[in-house]
Design a protein that fits this description.
The protein has 154 residues and is an alpha+beta fold. The chain is 46% helix and 21% strand. It has a four-stranded antiparallel sheet with strand order 1-2-3-4, with no helix packed on it. Belongs to the FliO/MopB family.
């Protein structure tokens, strides 16, 4: 039993460095020739890539001061659009959604304090503060609609 164990350990100690050496040589010399890595200033740059599905994607490539939008499908690449310049992405504006998350540590602390401590830390008060302008605007809108109905005789 001990002889079998020693033989297995010896085979492992001989085979493992041999396999690691072969893997190193393949990665260094075999794959390096297949996938060329360029260093320094490159004229062509991948600006952005957007996958559309499992086998389709859009790529935005910069080359010589111009931008090219390319579509990739299975084994084909086609030019969708050539752009001279890119517009800066616009800031996303979320409509009239009330944000109830505390924006500062002080506001968070104020919400955590008990109401009886002399501070209005009630979440309902914060909600009223944030919604009051929108509620007043909505109230004025409804009053205007009601006045328009009364004047039209409905």
């Amino acid at each position: 039993m001990n002889g079998d164990l020693i033989g297995a350990v010896v085979r492992l100690l001989v085979a493992l460095p041999l396999i690691l050496g072969i893997a190193y040589l393949v990665l260094k010399y075999g794959l390096a020739r297949r996938y060329v890595v360029t260093t320094g200033n490159r004229r062509m740059k991948l600006v952005e890539q957007l996958p559309l599905g499992p086998k389709t994607s859009l790529s935005l490539v910069s080359l010589g001061g111009k931008y090219y939008l390319l579509a990739h499908q299975d084994n084909s690449v086609s030019l969708v659009k050539e752009l001279d310049e890119l517009k800066e992405p616009e800031e996303t504006i979320v409509g009239d959604i009330v944000e109830l998350t505390p924006r500062t540590i002080e506001e968070f602390d104020r919400l955590q304090k008990p109401v009886g401590a002399g501070v209005t830390g009630d979440l309902f008060d914060v909600f009223k503060e944030k919604c009051r302008p929108r509620l007043n605007k909505f109230k004025n809108f409804l009053l205007a609609k009601l006045a328009a109905r009364k004047s039209s005789g409905e």
